[in-house]
Amino acid sequence: MSILRWLMVVAVAVLAAWAWWPRIVHSREVVHAHAAVKQYVCPMHPQIVADQAGTCPICQMDLVVYDRHSEAQDEPTDTPRGTQALQLSLDRVQTIGVRTAVAESVTVTPTMEATGIVQAAEPGRSEVHVRAPSFIEKVLVQETGVLVHKGDALALIYSPEIIAMQGEVLAAGQWADKNARAAVKQRLGLYGLSDGEMDALFREGRPRRLLTLRAPQDGVVMTRAAVPGGYAMPDVALFELQDLSQLWLEVAVPPAAVGSLGTSMPAVARLDGVATPIPLKFDRILPQVDAERRTARARYLVVAPPQSVQPGAWLQVTLATGAQHDAVLVPRDAVIDTGHEQYVFIAAEGGWYLPTKVTLGAVYGERQEIAEGVSAGDKVVATAAFLIDAESRVQASVRALSAPATATEGGKP
C-alpha cells in the first residue's frame, strides 16, 4: 500500500512537469524576442517610445536607440544619482557645442580675496605740547598736511615761568662745575630747552625770552591748534604729527579663515588703477569681531607704501590661506553642483561621456581644484555640460520607467 502511494505521487509530478514545460519555454522565447527588438526614444520626451527610427511628434527631434543591454548593467559606484553614461555621435556633439578640456596638474597656493582699509600706524603718531603755561609768539608751520622732519621749528613761545627758572639758574652761577652743570641742564631740559638753547643761555648769561617748539619726529602735520597770540597749557596738543612711512592695513576676513592666516603666508594688496602689487607683512589678528558685519580683522604692515596709498584708502587684498601644493584643475564650468553632490562628465573613447562624482578644492580664478574623482590628463566636458547632464538624466529616467515593464513582459504566461 505504501509503495502504491509513492508511485501515484511520482506520476502526478511527471504530469505537472509535462504540462508546464511548454509555458516555460514560451516565456523564455518571449524574453529573448523582446530583448532583440530595438526601441527608439525621444531624448527630450521620454514618454515617446517607438519600435523603429523616426522623429518625435512633439519636438521633431530624431529618436535615439534605447539600449536595454547596456542599461541593465550595474552603474559604477561613483555615478551621481539620476544620471548614467551616454554615447553621442560626432554630429550630435557638434550640434550642441560640446567642448572638452584636459585636467591639468598645477602647483598652486590657496588664496582668499578680501578688502582692507589703510590706517596710519599708531607707533608713528606724536603730539607737541608746551612744558609750562605759555603764550604763542609766532607759528612757523601754519598748515596741516605739511611734511616736517625731526628737529624742524614749529612755533615760538614765550613763558614767564621758564624765563624765571632761567634767571634762577643764572643767579646761582653753578654751571662752571661739571656735575653741577649736568644737573642744571637736566632741569632746563624738563622745561623743553634744547642743548643749543642751553649753551646759548650759558654763553650769553641772560635768560632767553623766546623758546622754539620743534618736531619730535619726521611726519606730516595732521592737526594744528597753535595760533599766533594764543595761550597754551601743557594739557593741550598744539601739533599732531603722523609718520606716513608706516601704514597698517586692516583686512576684514571670515572668522573661519582666521586660523589659516599667519606670518609665513604671503599677502599682497592692489589699488585701483595701479598695476604694481603692494607687499604686505602679517602683524596680528585683532581680538575683536565686527558684530554687524560678522567678520574678524587681520592687521598687516604695508611694506614701503607708495605715495598713492594714504590712510582711508580701500585696497583689494589677496591672502594665502594654505601651503603651496600640486593640484588637478579643470574649468569651473565643467563642474555640475546639485547641492547634494558635485560631478563632471569625463569624455571617454567611442563617444562615451561618463558622469563622475568629484570632491572639490579651492577655486583659482576660472579654474576649480578637484581633490578626488579626476586625474591629470582626463578630458572633461568644459562647455555645454548642462546639456550633457540633461540628456543623461533623460535616458536614466527612461531606463527607470521601462525596467518594471520589461519584468512584466518577461513573466507573461
Short description:
The chain is α+β, with helices and mostly antiparallel strands and 413 residues long.
Commentary on this structure:
This protein is of the alpha+beta class and 413 residues long. It has 3 domains: 75-108 and 325-397, conserved putative lor/sdh protein from methanococcus maripaludis s2 fold, CATH 2.40.420.20; 111-122 and 244-320, Elongation Factor Tu (Ef-tu), domain 3, CATH 2.40.30; 130-236, no CATH class. Helices cover 26% and strands 33% of the residues. The strands form 7 sheets. The chain has a 6-stranded antiparallel barrel. β23 and β24 form a beta hairpin. The two termini are 38 Å apart. The model is unreliable at 20-36, 69-75 and 404-413 (pLDDT under 50).
Key attributes of the depicted protein:
conserved putative lor/sdh protein from methanococcus maripaludis s2 fold, Elongation Factor Tu (Ef-tu), domain 3, four-stranded antiparallel sheet, 413 residues, 3 domains, alpha+beta
